[in-house]
Amino acid sequence: MKKAERILGIIAISLFSVAVIFKTMHWPASSIMLTVSVFLFNFGYLPLQLIRERRLRTTLLEKTYMIFRFITFFVVITGFQFKVMHWSGGSVLLTLGNILIPLFILFYFFVRIKGKGVIPFSLNDLIIAILCFSIHFFVTRSMVPPGVVNGYIILNEQFEKTNAGLESANNLIYSSLDSVSQSGNQELIESIHDLRASSTALCHLNDSLKNGFFASAIYGSISGKFELASTSRSLLADPQKGNVYFMESKSAARLKSRINKYMKEITRIQKRHNIQLALIGTGLDTKVSENEWGRHFSWEHRMFKNKPVAAIVMNLSWFKQMILFTESTLLNGLISQLDLSEETMLLQEMASRESDQAIMLKENEILRIKQLQELQKVQLEKSQTELDQRNTLTAFAFAGIAFVLILFFISTRAYLLKQKDNKKLAKQKEEITDKNDELYQQNEEIAAQRDEIEAQRNLVYDQKEQIEKTHNEISASIDYASRLQTSILPDPGLIKEKFSDHFILFRPRDKVSGDFYWWSQFEKQIIIAAADCTGHGVPGAFMSMLGISLLSEVVNKAFITDPGAILNQLREEVIRSLNQTGGKEDQKDGLDLSIVTIDTESWSCQYAGANNPLYLIRENELKEYKPDMMPISFYHRMDNFTTHKIQLEPGDQLYLFSDGYADQFGGSHRKKFKYGAFRQLLLDHTGDSMEQQHRVLIETIAKWQGDNDQIDDMVVIGLKV
Question: Would you say 214 and 382 are in contact if contact means Cβ atoms under 8 Å apart?
Answer without folding.
Answer: no
